[in-house]
Write a structure and sequence with these properties.
Length: 207
């Protein structure tokens, strides 16, 4: 199972989170401004990629691979997702993908929504984790009793079933103009989320 961690330029991850995610990943990528989090932590990724308008590798003593791509038709996140390791990954963890500018955050969610549904994708910040749920990747988590959770569809989702929460869902239709589920609460030891069509994010607030 190939695990890849990508660090973007949103709210930077704490050093302890970045170090842990790097140690549990097979390959790490800094997308331009995401390199600042590595530098602050005294760490280096396996790959630095982007147009380098936010981080100048010429001013740093780096040993990692550097790919400078000046194409302004793609974001640095897209450039990172286009590398072979990310395309082949079974799991992609995105740090620094939340917070900061809302347009960047929303585009990050949409870009990740377009990845192959077989990939396990999550965004992690200091206060929350966003798990992408697809038809091929239902969600099963344990040990979250008492924590707040919301379900945010990025397209119309049909057949959404959620168990283990205060307000369960059964074959629900979710999306714009349809049902939403905000600030639900995990009450059981086991949380299960599945859907028949569509893509949504399960947003878990950390304790």
């Amino acid at each position: 199972m190939l695990k890849v961690v990508i660090v973007l330029g949103g709210d930077p991850p704490a050093t302890v989170l970045l170090d842990w995610r790097m140690r549990t990943a097979d390959f790490s990528i800094a997308a331009d401004a995401g390199m600042n989090a590595f530098a602050e932590a005294g760490l280096e990724p396996d790959l630095l990629i982007g147009d380098m308008d936010s981080f100048n590798p010429d001013e740093a003593d780096l040993v990692c691979e550097i790919q400078r791509i000046t194409d302004q038709g793609t974001t640095d996140f897209e450039k990172a997702l286009g590398c072979p390791e990310a395309r082949q990954a079974d799991e992609i963890v995105v740090l620094g993908g939340t917070g900061g500018r809302s347009d960047h955050f929303l585009n990050n969610l949409l870009l990740a929504a377009g990845l192959p549904q077989s990939q396990n994708v999550l965004f992690e910040g200091e206060c929350e984790i966003l798990y992408r749920v697809t038809t091929e990747r239902p969600l099963a988590l344990e040990g979250l009793a008492g924590q707040s959770i919301s379900f945010t569809p990025v397209v119309v989702c049909e057949g959404v079933t959620v168990t283990g929460v205060r307000w369960p869902l059964t074959e629900a239709s979710m999306g714009p103009g349809r049902q939403l589920s905000q600030s639900n609460v995990v009450e059981a030891e086991d949380l299960r989320v599945s859907l028949a069509t569509g893509i949504l994010y399960a947003v878990v607030q950390k304790r």
